[in-house]
């Protein structure tokens, strides 16, 4: 895919295209940012544009001999390094040095993409640093990292930083709609995607996480639940703080939605559009108190507190608030 056709990282793409158009491509780049926001995809498109023999306004042409080789994953001037196991190893860097010591075969420059560059141990990182300091020929390095600050400062200083932020909600929502997601779930799944293409793709395929259905059932049954039922629910979350965090986040959103529905706000502001009316019988004061209690419990999760007791106390409190009001 061409650079100009990509969405979600427009500022990054404009910057890269300016360098291509004005023939000011850097010698090394560090693509860093949250996982799943398009770093690898854009690196691939940028590499093709660098290698293209007939670039057009910062885009690869897709038809020249170089592009055809690239699109068939058979370009002699392209090297893609991935961790061997958990790390990028020094033998891989030594092999890279041997490969790039020759002049390019097809394109004006060679391109090296290094995935998870932050996984290099010191020997590998120092070997790469020597290559960056004294490149053997025309070569462009694109280092990709979810944790750019974990790289050696001396490596970072020799790379042009390219920061990738979260994908805008508008782009995620448009993607979900294009995947056929029901309009009543687009807002929720956009929120759950947290600006990441990979999560959006998974949510489009699988739908909301199963924990959402548990939260819905729990809130629906809570006003009539007895102590034994609440104890059983709490037992399920013992030693599962990550699951509790997801449960509490979902509960807070469901309560928040009901408060907004009570105020007759536009539907576009409702996250759980398919659950309208779930908590219609909860008094507004109970909903407000409920959101406050749930968020407070969420904060307690970071401390050394029993997950079981936390859930148990929260549910007991919420039930009493609903019954009292």
UniProtKB/TrEMBL annotation:
<dbReference type="InterPro" id="IPR003593">
    <property type="entry name" value="AAA+_ATPase"/>
</dbReference>
<dbReference type="Pfam" id="PF09115">
    <property type="entry name" value="DNApol3-delta_C"/>
</dbReference>
<keyword id="KW-0548">Nucleotidyltransferase</keyword>
<feature type="domain" description="AAA+ ATPase">
    <location>
        <begin position="25"/>
        <end position="166"/>
    </location>
</feature>
<dbReference type="InterPro" id="IPR027417">
    <property type="entry name" value="P-loop_NTPase"/>
</dbReference>
<protein>
    <recommendedName>
        <fullName>DNA polymerase III subunit delta'</fullName>
        <ecNumber>2.7.7.7</ecNumber>
    </recommendedName>
</protein>
<dbReference type="InterPro" id="IPR015199">
    <property type="entry name" value="DNA_pol_III_delta_C"/>
</dbReference>
<dbReference type="GO" id="GO:0006261">
    <property type="term" value="P:DNA-templated DNA replication"/>
</dbReference>
<dbReference type="GO" id="GO:0009360">
    <property type="term" value="C:DNA polymerase III complex"/>
</dbReference>
<dbReference type="InterPro" id="IPR004622">
    <property type="entry name" value="DNA_pol_HolB"/>
</dbReference>
<dbReference type="GO" id="GO:0008408">
    <property type="term" value="F:3'-5' exonuclease activity"/>
</dbReference>
<keyword id="KW-0239">DNA-directed DNA polymerase</keyword>
<dbReference type="GO" id="GO:0003677">
    <property type="term" value="F:DNA binding"/>
</dbReference>
<dbReference type="Pfam" id="PF13177">
    <property type="entry name" value="DNA_pol3_delta2"/>
</dbReference>
<dbReference type="InterPro" id="IPR050238">
    <property type="entry name" value="DNA_Rep/Repair_Clamp_Loader"/>
</dbReference>
<keyword id="KW-0808">Transferase</keyword>
<dbReference type="GO" id="GO:0003887">
    <property type="term" value="F:DNA-directed DNA polymerase activity"/>
</dbReference>
<keyword id="KW-0235">DNA replication</keyword>
């Amino acid at each position: 895919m061409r650079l100009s056709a990509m969405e979600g990282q427009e500022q990054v793409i404009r910057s890269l295209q300016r360098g291509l158009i004005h023939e000011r491509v850097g010698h090394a780049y560090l693509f860093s940012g949250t996982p799943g926001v398009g770093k690898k995809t854009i690196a691939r498109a940028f590499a093709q544009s660098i290698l293209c023999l007939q670039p057009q306004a910062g885009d690869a042409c897709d038809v020249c001999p170089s592009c055809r080789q690239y699109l068939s994953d058979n370009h002699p001037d392209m090297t893609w390094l991935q961790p061997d196991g958990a790390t990028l190893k020094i033998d891989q860097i030594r092999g890279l040095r041997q490969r790039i010591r020759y002049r390019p075969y097809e394109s004006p420059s060679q391109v090296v993409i290094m995935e998870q560059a932050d996984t290099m141990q010191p020997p590998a990182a120092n070997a790469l640093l020597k290559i960056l300091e004294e490149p053997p020929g025309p070569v462009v390095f694109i280092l990709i990292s979810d944790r750019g600050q974990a790289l050696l400062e001396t490596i970072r200083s020799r790379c042009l930083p390219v920061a990738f932020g979260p994908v805008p909600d508008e782009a995620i929502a448009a993607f979900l709609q294009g995947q056929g997601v029901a309009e009543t779930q687009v807002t929720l799944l956009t929120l759950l995607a947290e600006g990441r293409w990979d999560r959006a793709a998974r949510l489009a395929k699988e739908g909301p996480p199963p924990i959402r259905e548990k939260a819905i059932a729990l809130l629906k049954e809570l006003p009539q639940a007895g102590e034994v039922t609440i104890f059983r629910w709490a037992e399920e979350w013992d030693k599962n703080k990550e699951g509790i965090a997801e449960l509490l986040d979902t509960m807070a959103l469901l309560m928040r939605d009901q408060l907004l529905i009570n105020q007759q706000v536009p539907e576009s502001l409702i996250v759980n559009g398919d659950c309208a009316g779930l908590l219609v019988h909860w008094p507004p004061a109970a909903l407000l108190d409920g959101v406050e209690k749930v968020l407070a419990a969420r904060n307690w999760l970071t401390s050394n507190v029993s997950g079981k007791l936390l859930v148990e106390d929260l549910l007991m409190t919420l039930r009493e608030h609903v019954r009292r009001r």
